[in-house]
Amino acid sequence: MEIILLFLLVFMIIGSIIAIETKNLLSSVISVGVVGFSLSIIFLMLGAPDIAITQVVVEILILVVLIRATITTDNTAIEGPRDTFPFVSSLIFFGLFLMFAFFAVQELPKFGEPLMKVSKEYLRTGAEKTGATNIVTAVLLDFRAYDTLGEATVLFTSIIGAFVILRRKGRKGKAETDSEKFGILEDEDIKQNFEGF
Amino acid sequence: MILYFLSMVLLVMGLYCLIAKKNIIKKIIGIVIIEYSINLFLVLVGYRSGGVAPILVKGMQVEELVQKGVDPLPQALVLTSIVIGLGTLALMVALCLRMYEKFKTFDMSKINTLKG
Questions:
Q1: Max Cα distance, chain A (Å)
Q2: pLDDT > 90: percent of chain A
């Protein structure tokens, strides 16, 4: 079990190395797909089928969005020397971070033996209190329903934001197309075209 | 233990991609990798060895689920986090496409109109 998880995690790390370091943007995006789908397999093995399903769907959507961003644009690799300051400072920071993470991970509860003080109560009373046999949905939609409401708000706001940013015609552009489409002349056009009269 | 540490390594690689790369799409990919690693870490912390999914199937007693089920709380929160990640990704890609229309490039070092 743990061996398979380890193998999949190493596979994810290799995939993300390829995604980070390759020059072609399209192959980079597809390597992100490798990482996401192996993540969904890991979720399935960790006893989380709901998250695995969501991860597959979201991963497909992420691939569609990212491919839309790369395929219609200029796909050439960015040339030029690597900036030394971000490179060196990030290497130093990441070394320190990994060192501290190594010590912090020792303090966590061991893998396979979680602290479940609240969750045991959810598991025990979830079915009779909420009527849901799937405890994850009981937590999501009943015990912590405000969290889901906040999620819906964030999702709505971000999609509205993306829609507004990608909208091609504002109010001004609409007036221009009106004058082109229907031949309604603006004041300046009238002045220019009929100066002679 | 080693699994936790490897997910931390994944986080660090995403951060490296976010900081040191010049291409904006690469930066977005870095953010996506960070999201993956954090979600994975939270679900790993809630795993119980030999555990079953927290679903009450037919013929199963509640006490059996309490003894064997994995932690449902991180799973519910990670579910929220995954969907929010998709929303923010859509917003970021929209901003990048807009920026590409204006500057005709994805290179951050060429987009320097904010220089003081």
A1: 91
A2: 33
